[in-house]
Amino acid sequence: MYQHHVDLNPIEVAIDEMSKKVLEIRQLCSSSDVDMIQLQLKLQGSISVQ
């Protein structure tokens, strides 16, 4: 078994997390029947202060 370890600085971690959120939001928006409740929850979770 091969493992690859990469050390990320805080900015890189934040960029990675935001990229994941953007992908999730794009997937929600691109469906033919947009679930507005799911979209609202995802958006609120993305912009709330943590």
TrEMBL record:
<dbReference type="InterPro" id="IPR027357">
    <property type="entry name" value="DOCKER_dom"/>
</dbReference>
<dbReference type="InterPro" id="IPR043162">
    <property type="entry name" value="DOCK_C_lobe_C"/>
</dbReference>
<protein>
    <recommendedName>
        <fullName>DOCKER domain-containing protein</fullName>
    </recommendedName>
</protein>
<dbReference type="InterPro" id="IPR026791">
    <property type="entry name" value="DOCK"/>
</dbReference>
<comment type="similarity">
    <text>Belongs to the DOCK family.</text>
</comment>
<feature type="domain" description="DOCKER">
    <location>
        <begin position="1"/>
        <end position="50"/>
    </location>
</feature>
